[in-house]
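[agent] plan:
  1. take the single chain provided in the ticket
  2. run structure prediction with default settings
  3. attach structure tokens to the ticket
  4. add a short note for the reviewer (M.T.)
[agent] executing step 1
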Amino acid sequence: MKHLPVVIFCVIVFALSCRNNSSEEQPADSVATVDSTEKLDTVFSEKDNAFLQQLNFSKYAGSLGAPVDWRKFRMVTSSHEDSLLVSAFQPDNLYYEEYGRLLKYSPDSSMFIDLDSYNIEIQKDKTGRFTSIENGPDTEVSLINLDDKKKTRLVFLGPGNGVEDGAWIDNNTVVLIGYRERDTTRMKTAVIWRYHVPTKTFHVYESADTVIGGQLSSWRKERLRQIL
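[agent] step 2 finished; step 3 output follows
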């Protein structure tokens, strides 16, 4: 019996050690869950589907008699990008007058997406109305951070490819909607680039439905017509 206090003490120490280990391991599990949510999304959630359905491009496709089924898109690549081209944002005096209505602002207005200024020239006609002229076959889409006055090039595409629309899911997440042309068939594959700003992570989704690619290739003209 003289060893009983020692035994009780050892049992108490062991119990406290197990409890502490359990407490320390729990946050690691939580972090893994949060971190994997963005990475493991191979298809769009119902919330994302609803968001995409309310975009003007979806309405345009529906008016053509071929509504877009966003559930057909599947994630094909996921990557963390530390090498995106970043430069100072120094717009000229006419930038906001000419392109202001085309810019896609984040919900908190701290950032915006510039889809058009690289290859679309905006001019005023004799009546004072803005018109658009395409400057070349390449496409560049930039993310502008108004807090630090930085411009980040998100996407650059050569001839036969394009980004025709963009939107913010929330203050941290951008979706760019466009197409890429297959070298062998020249068919246009619909693509969605989903970019998470804080983690600099791209998730790229594609759909095998070639009808969507064709609709996107004609959407730019209609989009500019509606805005300008």
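[agent] step 4 note for reviewer: Helices lie at 4-39, 46-53, 56-63, 95-99, 210-227.
[agent] ticket updated
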